[in-house]
Request: fold
Amino acid sequence: MHLYIACPGYLAGGGSGATIGGRRWAIATHRIYRTTAYRYPRERLILALTLLLVLLVIALTATATVCLSGVFVLAMVAISYAANRRHHQALLGQAAPVTRRDTPGLAALVAESAARLQVGSVRVFVVPHDTLNAYTFGLSSPKVVVLHSPLLRAMDGDELRFVLGHELGHVRLGHTWLNSLVGGMAGIPSPFLASALLAMAFLWWNRACEYSADRAGLLACGEPRKAISALVKLAAGADARTRADLERALRRIEAEDDHLVGELGEVLATHPMTLRRIEELRRYASSGEYRRLRTLVERNVAAAVGRVDGF
Reply:
């Protein structure tokens, strides 16, 4: 499907425009490419199996009924929405928004990554912290991406593109709102064993979403080596400042699947082992699909008109 890209703050000679989110956007004359074809192949299957498991729990246990389950899920979504609003308000008090005026270099990276992936309305903040981390949240627009401040010191430009692309991938693929919906379903009151199965199914889907977001990050970055080094730095943490620190982190990563404890730990985690994320990135980077999509999303950057304002 061919659409058109709009960029704020610029009107091509004689071009028409529209007001979106309080800013004036110009309509470019270049066609852009929108896709979610980079989604991890098993993500939708795992989501379907999780939803099927929820229905089976409702059908086979007397603890939950269809009506009560629906009410519970809606209540959980409402609670999640309220929590997101509170988090957003708290964020505004302690975090610095990424803007072209205050952080032009980072704003340019955000704009470039958003153009490649064709993400909707997002706001990006940098929050003071002592860990290397980034996350996204939001049920309504604009979605919010939060970067912990040490990322800006530890990562180079391509590594930051991967981190930003990863979080923007969550937004583009609908993970932010699906997480609240599926999480609510997984929390439906049920017997202990059924609750444990639902929780593990939800975590299984979470891990699949991470693989999808890693692929988005790779498309935004375009450098498999840098995507992998970003994952190693995230695993190493903010205290890893030397090459020797990173090499020690890499050895820990390579040993993650050497013991049963690591395998069991992954089952109970929202993220896959870093080792498996790296292996999956390497597989995807060597595929013809990645090379095809990378060429297409690069055209989105070339098609962008003017400068992006408001990040």
